[in-house]
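Section 4.2 – Deliverable D4.2 (structural model, holo form)

The reporting period included a commitment to supply a predicted holo structure for the target in complex with flavin-adenine dinucleotide. Inputs used:
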Amino acid sequence: MIAPRNYHRWFNKQGLDFIRDALMPIANAAQFGHLGQEASTAYVIRLLALLNRCNFLKKLVLNMPQFQEGNQELWNRLAATHNLCLGQTIERVSRGQTILVKTTSNQWEFERLIWTAPVDDFLSVADASTEEADIFSRVRTIKRAVITCKIEGLPANIFYVIRNTLNQPLPTSYPLAIYEVDPGSKIYNFYPFMDETTTIEELESNVVDCVKKLGGTQVTPMGQPLIWKWFSHFLTEDLKDGIYERLEMLQGSQNTYFANEMTAGVSVPYGMEYAAYLVKRFF
Ligand SMILES: Cc1cc2nc3c(=O)[nH]c(=O)nc-3n(C[C@H](O)[C@H](O)[C@H](O)COP(=O)(O)OP(=O)(O)OC[C@H]3O[C@@H](n4cnc5c(N)ncnc54)[C@H](O)[C@@H]3O)c2cc1C
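Output (structure tokens):
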């Protein structure tokens, strides 16, 4: 596990300064935002490994896959072979000989539990062991927003990442990536991050400023910004102390398994692959 505090030093040590300069604005736009400097190099490499799955041409011209209809087909296929109980909020998990799961309107008894919601939600409803409580309370997240606007005068079909943000840092709440949701629709998504002080007005005025700099006009927001809890991660010190080894040791203890962003890493592909790994390892 590579976990030096500062990825600048790591890239420099490997003689890869030019790669840092080219890739970190993209990595920060995609995942780390203002956390850029502090994020463990292990997370940076994990993200870059994901981007590296795009073919050479896509990487070269930064032509990211235009998002299609989302991941719905994946969930439809999974749902087809499972007994689903939708709309159930889990309120209590109690583990003894069997595992009792209580929701707002039901109670079930299981032999095993695979928890796929965020781990902080596990802490708020489950009879967490001391080890589970200690590991999960170390999870950190940041906030990011998605702002959707109709805009005149911007190029069609763009996926744009602001460059040179290492040398000329932008405010946390400035959008770092922009793309047209549906080619030709003139509807664009903007991706800024947020900190404790960020206001909605600030998010919106930064979008207007960014559009102006790109030569666009007539910004019409399509609704309120959507605000997301983002990037479950551990601090570098925890990585150094072997937190991921401890997390893996939890798997199967009290017939409970965890498959989510914290065990898998950010992204749907990593989530799917981790779930498959867990099945292979235990079931
Ligand atoms: C704005 C945004 C854009 C993204 N874009 C991409 C992308 O383009 N490509 C990509 O690969 N990844 C993308 N991601 C990342 C990806 O969505 C996450 O990494 C992934 O969804 C994490 O999976 P998860 O199973 O841990 O959590 P989630 O997908 O968040 O699923 C957890 C589920 O648990 C439910 N839940 C929580 N508490 C309870 C409870 N008590 N009872 C019952 N249910 C509960 C939640 O409602 C939720 O449905 C994006 C994320 C965001 C926020």
